[in-house]
Design goal:
This protein is an alpha/beta fold and 231 residues long. Helix content is 36%, strand content 24%. The structure holds adenosine-5'-triphosphate (ATP). Keywords: ATP-binding, Nucleotide-binding, Transport.
Length: 231
């Protein structure tokens, strides 16, 4: 009873044609080259763009059904979204930013604690690090009790240590929340570490061959590098 998507959308350079499922409590990592349509897929699921044809269902709920004329607006889809450099309100503290999507102060504090930024609750976004801002963005997305979590390169601007911490947190959260999570990432290590399933795509289509080619290219490059390491 997870997420099921079957959709088509005409884009300037190709048609997006995707069939994708993601079970509750699982994370599907969407990988592929630049311009493959990964962010467009996320925007379609969020309701920020409209497919030309298809259906999107989450359990018994239908978000979108072209044939039946159903197109549930974004605010009613219960999506939690985090993308790179998520915009927080600069004049509000981190706690007030999170409270914007949840009136329950106890829950806001628990989320801030979970993501290790409880001590920064009263600080404004401009006075904390990029990693701390992304943690606040995750709290904001989760405070809404989302039915699905959509993450578009949420960690890509962060240093390796912060990325690794946040990945660990996300892995635990996905299991605990029991909701489907779609994660767009350029980082195949991240996809391998977090993905219960990997969904490679190129030019708007599912393309497992791209992943095999990329992995064998990377193997060749690392062998090539190994032969040239100074003694
Ligand atoms: N606002 C737009 N106007 C016109 N074309 C767009 C727009 N946004 C995306 N596209 C085109 O749609 C296609 C898919 O773009 P999309 O951003 O979904 O790819 P992506 O896989 O997320 O790329 P990246 O990894 O670089 O973020 C690309 O060919 C892109 O040029």
């Amino acid at each position: 009873m997870g997420l099921h998507i079957s959709l088509r959308k005409r884009l300037p350079h190709f048609d997006l044609r995707l069939d994708l499922g993601c079970a509750r409590g699982e994370l599907t990592a969407i990988v592929g080259p630049s311009g493959a349509g990964k962010s467009t897929l996320i925007r379609l699921v969020a309701g920020l763009e409209t497919p030309d044809w298809g259906r999107m269902e989450l359990g018994a709920r239908t978000f979108f059904d072209k044939a039946a004329g159903i197109d549930v607006p974004t605010r009613e889809r219960q999506v939690g979204m985090v993308f790179q450099d998520y915009p927080l309100f600069s004049h509000l503290s981190l706690a007030k930013n999170v409270a914007f999507s949840c009136a329950d102060q106890g829950k806001v504090n628990a989320l801030l604690a979970r993501f290790g930024i409880r001590h920064l609750a009263q600080r404004k976004p401009g006075t904390v690090s990029g990693g701390e801002r992304q943690r606040a963005a995750m709290c904001l997305a989760l405070a809404r009790d989302p039915a699905i979590l959509l993450l578009d390169e949420p960690f890509s601007a962060l240093d390796a240590l912060t990325r690794s911490d946040l990945r660990g947190e996300l892995r635990q959260l996905t299991r605990q929340l029991g909701i489907p999570v779609l994660l767009v990432t350029h980082d195949l290590h991240e996809a391998a570490e977090l993905g219960d399933a990997i969904f490679p795509m190129t030019d708007g289509r599912h393309d497992p061959q791209w992943l095999s080619d990329t992995l064998s290219g990377a193997r060749r490059a690392s062998q090539n590098l190994a032969t040239r390491v100074c003694a």
